[in-house]
Amino acid sequence: MDRLDLRGLKCPLPALRTKQALARLPAGAVVEVACTDPMAAIDIPHLVGESGDALEASGRDGDVLTFRIRKR
User: Fold this and answer.
1) CB 3.0–4.6 Å: which of 2, 19, 40, 70 could bond 31 by disulfide?
2) CA 17, 19, 26, 41 torsion-angle sign
3) What is the reported pLDDT for 40?
4) Measuring CA to CA, how many Å separate 20 from each of 31, 61, 62, 63?
5) Reduced DSSP (H G I as helix, E B as strand, rest coil) percent helix, strand, coil of the chain, to 5
6) Alpha-carbon span 21 to 52, nearest angstrom
7) What is the pLDDT of residues 9-67, one digit of tens each?
8) Which residues does the annotation mark as catalytic?
9) Rounded distance, CA 54 to CA 56, Å?
């Protein structure tokens, strides 16, 4: 599983970097994204919905948002 640490980046960078990472992955691969931008709670699920990939899990630990995404 790939991990993408996007903590400290502001909108729109977390969504853009997640999109770029997903583009490089083979089908079925999983990436775990960690970020601190509150807008990512909206942007990343929206991105996943548009791309057809699967948001397997999401959570929050303090100010860190995490997303587990499986490439379609």
Assistant:
1) 2
2) positive
3) 97
4) 11, 25, 26, 23
5) 35, 35, 30
6) 15
7) 999 999 999 999 999 999 999 999 999 999 999 999 999 999 999 999 999 999 999 99
8) 11
9) 6
